[in-house]
Amino acid sequence: xxxxxxxxxxxxxxxxxxxxxxxxxxxxxxxxxxxxxxxxxxxxxxxxxxxxxxxxxxxxxxxxxxxxxxxxxxxxxxxxxxxxxxxxxxxxxxxxxxxxxxxxxxxxxxxxxxxxxxxxxxxxxxxxxxxxxxxxxxxxxxxxxxxxxxxxxxxxxxxxxxxxxxxxxxxxxxxxxxxxxxxxxxxxxxxxxxxxxxxxxxxxxxxxxxxxxxxxxxxxxxxxxxxxxxxxxxxxxxxxxxxxxxxxxxxxxxxxxxxxxxxxxxxxxxxxxxxxxxxxxxxxxxxxxxxxxxxxxxxxxxxxxxxxxxxxxxxxxxxxxxxxxxxxxxxxxxxxxxxxxxxxxxxxxxxxxxxxxxxxxxxxxxxxxxxxxxxxxxxxxxxxxxxxxxxxxxxxxxxxxxxxxxxxxxxxxxxxxxxxxxxxxxxxxxxxxxxxxxxxxxxxxxxxxxxxxxxxxx
Length: 458
Hints:
- The chain contains 19 helices and three strands.
- The protein is mainly α and 458 residues long.
- Among the domains are: 6-113; 129-331, hpI Integrase, Chain A.
């Protein structure tokens, strides 16, 4: 027959979070009944054995289980209703495991005594890009890698802390992480994606991860004794080989340094909770990605099967890439604003391109006309040059002729010969002249002037 200890009861549950929650609930219940056993906030040393002894004692006594539970509820007054319900559920399961079955009437009484949650118990502040940037400014490698992974993947903290190195593929686009069913809330395995900046942060973290593990092996012995941290080994295959307690510590420290360590007046709980990164992921990614894909990536039951039936992993990755800028935190400037400005710039460039094309065509036409004109001008210049050459030759011939005519001997003989001919010509036509003033010289400049005048008028 199986021994009904607290440990055997807890061993029935496969999920780590359930184990932790139910164990804490039983210890709190026994503290309420018999007085506080723990010396500190967490269990240490032989305290688990003491609780086992109290468990045996409790079921060996004649107890009014309903009144014990009602008193336990009253003892938790002021705590969030969800926390009270969770602890009550754990204790009821433990009672049932030990053969204590409450009647329907008793269960109804407990329901009436359990505080009702009216909206969110703790008023949480919502994350936006500027707030996350402030927090990341005070985060080391491990903190930055985890925060950006959570913000861009939608994973729960417990899921992210259980991702193995072998279940991460940073070479794909987008980078993929396999979330195993053994540590998911719904028990189903799924694939999630992370952003490029989260990938870069994880790569930086992996450079120092082994050093972190080695430094942690013998560093926190006091915390291990108090069960504030688990024993680290050099064979830890998790991407993030640390506990939720470590996460709470660096998260709180980053909030303090960023001036964002704000607590709810009613519950005293932080208003910027790291769990809120899931809400950030959901609201941001849904701006450009189908809601069923977003819900499936977050691991919400009812969406996983439907999403994987409707979309291939490749299609889901493509949708993620289109919406990735919405979950990008540390990029230079606001990505959406940059994209809008880029679209405007591209539109302007298209306009400039049209203008340049038109001007290029006009320039080509003008160039063609210019070349035609230049060709004509070239021909005209050649003609002008030829005219100048002919004019020079005319002047040269005229000068030579005039010089020749100025020779007294030649001129006298030639003139007398011409004069005789002209006199005979004059006689034939009855002209009265002796041609004494006859000038046989050539005025080349006058001839050129007449030619140019005729050309211009013609």
